[in-house]
Amino acid sequence: MIHLVFQPADADTLRKAMELDETLQGDIVEIKDDYAVGPLYVSDDAETWQQRRDWWKELWEASPYVATENLPMVDDKMTLHNLKRTLDEHPKEELWIWMGQNGHDVCGYYWLISQMQSYQGRVFVLYMNNLPFINEKGGIFYPVYLFEIQPAEYRKAKKLCRKVTLSEMEVDPDEWKRLCAEGAKVRILEGGKKIASKPDNHYDADILKALTKEPRKGNKVMFDILSKMKIKTGDVFLLWRMRHLAEMGDLVITGDTTKGWKDFDVRLPGGPVAVAAEGAGGEEGSTPDTP
Predict the structure, then answer these.
(1) What are the structural domains of the chain?
(2) Exposed (0-12), middle (13-18) or buried (19+): which is 203, by Cβ within 10 Å?
(3) 41, 166, 234, 240: most buried by Cβ count inside 10 Å?
(4) CA 161 to chain CA mean position, Å
(5) pLDDT, tens digit, for every residue of 62-93?
(6) Strand ranges inside the chain, DSSP E
(7) Alpha-carbon distance 199 to 189, whole Å?
(8) Mind listing the pLDDT tens digit for each residue in 126-142?
């Protein structure tokens, strides 16, 4: 079989599981883009695909990753092309799609399944939806992401494998078309496989909640934001929203976000410098934003 996952950490965990269970042996394909954020595109629309690529490029070039990593979405079309070619050349090959209970994976599934209708009967899904597993301390938990599952527990996880039904092959691509038509830049999982579109500012409250008027390094701020968020998204997207909030005057970024996470500071407006100036008879708005 061919295993397909939507996050690098999932692929790493699945490889470890293969070492423990030879019946899981197979190639691993990874879809790199995060379809839970940004403008979407239908498979045959080059213009909307380019719009999405340009949007990601804008975010990527303002992030610390620009100097060290490639844009994450550029290979997905080629990945899908190669996957289909393998399935065409090997008619008995099966595709196993692994999904955690999160918007990232489910949106990726809708993107993928909208282009796999001709392979009905050979596509299987393993969805960890509200299912308990044992963690490394021996306790029961409900994983949100596949990589949270211990490799030994994949023996149990593989029992969830089921064929994507003919009905799903017909209906699920319509979900992708709906998400594309709604045109939102944020999508969250509301339960089951239900994805809801949300406005650009959906995560802004999570960002501002993690900040204080004291400046802190970007890496510490991002860690706090992600650790406290109930529904998580990627750090590049969050940094894009932080830059937007800075333009609106809702927070202050000092330094260069393209050099590294430790090369810029973030704080709420009205820090110690501004307060001191106001107390001296000046106006807060006349004081430069410095940490």
Answers:
(1) 2-181 (3.40.1360.10), 202-286 (1.10.10)
(2) buried
(3) 240
(4) 23
(5) 999 987 777 766 779 899 999 999 999 999 99
(6) 2-5, 27-30, 95-99, 123-127, 133-134, 140-141, 162-163, 186-191, 194-198, 216-217, 252-255, 264-267
(7) 14
(8) 999 988 999 888 899 99
Express each pLDDT in 205-262 by its tens digit. 999 999 999 999 999 999 999 999 999 999 999 999 999 999 999 999 999 999 999 9
Rounded Cα gap, residues 64 and 157, in angstroms: 36
| C-alpha 233 chain-centroid distance | 5
Contacts of 8 (CB under 8 A, 6+ apart): 30
Q: Measuring CA to CA, which residue among 288, 289, 235 is closest to residue 265?
A: 289
Rounded distance between C-alpha atoms, residue 7 and residue 197, angstroms? 21
Query: Which run of H or E residues covers position 81?
Result: helix 76-89
Q: What pLDDT does 282 receive?
A: 37
